[in-house]
Amino acid sequence: MMEDIGGDDDVEIPLPNATSNVLKKILEYCEYHKDELAPASEDESDRIKRTTDISDWDQRFLSVDQEMLFEIILAANYLDIRPLLDIGCKTVANMIKGKTPEEIRRTFNIQNDFTPEEEDQIRRENQWAEDR
Q1: Would you say 112 and 105 are in contact if contact means Cβ atoms under 8 Å apart?
Q2: Is the pLDDT of residue 41 over 60?
Q3: pLDDT of residue 46
Q4: Hey, which family's this protein in (predicted)?
Q5: Could you give the angle at which helices 66-78 and 82-96 cross, rounded to 10 degrees?
Q6: Which residue has the higher pLDDT, 107 or 42?
Q7: What whole-number distance in Å separates Cα of residue 15 and Cα of residue 35?
Q8: Coil, helix or strand at residue 60
Q9: b/e map of 52-64 (b: 16 or more CB within 10 Å)?
Q10: Average pLDDT, the chain
């Protein structure tokens, strides 16, 4: 992002919909990880390992309510902070892993808009996925 604005230190960066609390969290993350060098070129296996392993500090950092977690993910995406975006998404994936659709709906407060008949049809069509 800084390359896009020509490296001028006095340029304002618009942050739509980012609250001061979210920005404080982003700054806290950046301050903690400031001495970690970003790899010049990262192959896919390195990126997968980095996002699979979430450090204890990062886990504690992302132990926030869902609204804050999603706002951090959106801001990290907008600001192109790839490591924070990756661990944020991995945290959400861990919240989903091993849960039934009903448990996922409860976790994320998602209303079920399928009729029982539609649910049965979807289960039949995707039986192969449940047989794993």
Answers
A1: yes
A2: yes
A3: 63
A4: Belongs to the SKP1 family.
A5: 150
A6: 107
A7: 25
A8: helix
A9: eebeeebeebbeb
A10: 86
Is pLDDT above 90 for 127?
A: no
List the structure tokens of 47. 């990126």
Residue 25 contacts residue 64 (beta carbons within 8 Å)? yes
**8 A C-beta contact, residue 63 and residue 14:** no
Q: What would the DSSP string read from start to end of 38-59?
A: PPSS--HHHHHHHHH---HHHH
- Give the integer Cα–Cα distance in Å for 117 and 29: 46
Domains of the chain: residue spans and CATH: 18-33+44-130 (3.30.710.10)
State the amino acid at position 120 in one-letter form.
Answer: D
Distances (CA, A) of 30 to 27, 43, 76, 82, 110: 5, 23, 11, 11, 32
Q: Cβ distance 69 to 62 under 8 Å?
A: yes
Tokens representing residue 18 in the block: 């980012």
Token digits of residue 30 = 């950046």
